[in-house]
Amino acid sequence: MVQELSDALPEGYLAEPRVHLGSYFEVDVCAFEGEDRARTRSERHGDPGGVATWAPPEPTLVLDVDLAEQYEYEVLVFDHSRARQLVAAIEIVSPANKDRPENRRVFVAKCAALLQRRICVTIVDLVTTRQFSLYAELLALIGRSDPAFSPSPSPIYAVTCRQLEPERKGIEIWAHPLVLGHELPELPIWLSPDLAISLDLEASYEEACRFLRIR
Fold first, then answer.
1. Helix (H, G, I), strand (E, B) or coil at 107
2. pTM score, two decimals?
3. Exposure of 21 by Cβ count < 10 A (0-12 exposed, 13-18 middle, 19+ buried)?
4. In 66-122, which ranges are continuous DSSP H helix?
5. How far apart are CA 37 and CA 75, in angstroms?
6. 89: Cβ–Cβ under 8 A, 6 or more apart, which residues?
7. Taking the domains of the chain in order of start, what are their residue ranges?
8. H helix or E strand, kind and range, residue 88
9. Contact at 8 Å (CB) between 115 and 147?
C-alpha cells in the first residue's frame, strides 16, 4: 500500500507505515532543550547545579483502571511543503481493535479526532472474526448513520471520510461494504481540499500477494 501511494503521490508528499503492537511504543513528537535554556530554568528555581527541584503536588484523583493495549496498523501521508503536516491517515483494522468495547471506543475516537483536524481518514476493515462495524460506530458518535450499512452494518468494508471546508460544513464519505471473494474497491485519498489520489486496494492486495508469494 505504501509503495502504491508513493508512486501516486505528487512531489512534496510522503507516505509512511506505522505499526504499534501491544507494549511497543513509538515516539511521534520529540522535545529537546538546549543546555543554556536548561541552565537558565534551573537557576530560576534556585538550583545552580542544573537539576530542577520543583516537586509536583499530589494528584487530585487516582483511578484503578486497566488501559488496554492498542494495536495500530496505519499508513500516514505527510505534506512536506506545509512543514510535514499530516494530511491523510489510512487505518487498517486489526482484531484487537474490535474485540472489546473500550478498544472500539479508542479507535473511533482517534478517527473522529483526525477528521476534526481536517485530516482525510480511510478505514480498511477485513476482520471477519468480530461482527462490529467501527465505521458505523464512528457515525453513531456524531449522531449519523449510513443507509447502506443499516439496519445490519457489514463487519467488513472500506471507507474514506473527509471533513469539508468550514464554509461548506459536513463530511463527505466514500463507503463500500465488502464481500469475501469479490474485488476490493478503489478509494480516494484527499491530500488537500481539491487534490486527491487513488488508493487501489485490489492492486495493493495483489502486489502484497505477489511479494509474499501467496497464491
1. helix
2. 0.78
3. middle
4. 95-98, 101-116
5. 36
6. 74, 75, 76, 77, 114, 119, 120, 121, 122
7. 2-52+65-212
8. strand 85-92
9. no
Asked if 164 contacts 171 with a C-beta cutoff of 8 angstroms, the reply is yes
Query: How many angstroms separate the CA atoms of 40 and 34, rounded?
Result: 10
pLDDT digits (tens, 9 = 90+) for 181-209: 899 999 999 999 999 999 999 999 898 88
**Distance separating the N- and C-terminal Cα atoms of the chain:** 18
What residues does 121 pair with on adjacent strands?
A: 89, 161
DSSP letter at 149 equals G
What's the rounded Cα separation, in Å, for the pair 8 and 10?
7
What residue type is assigned to position 163 of the chain?
Q
**Consecutive H or E run containing 171:** strand 171-177
Each residue of 158-188: pLDDT tens digit? 999 999 888 778 999 999 999 998 999 999 9
How many CA atoms lie less than 13 Å away from 54 in the CB half-sphere?
Answer: 7
User: Looking at residue 113, what DSSP letter applies?
Assistant: H
**Contact yes or no for 71/127 (Cβ under 8 A):** no
Residue 171's closest CA among 142, 137, 134, 194? Answer: 142
Q: What angle do CA 24, 103, 27 make, to 5 degrees?
A: 30
Contact 185, 159 (CB under 8 A): no
DSSP H or E stretch at residue 7: helix 2-8
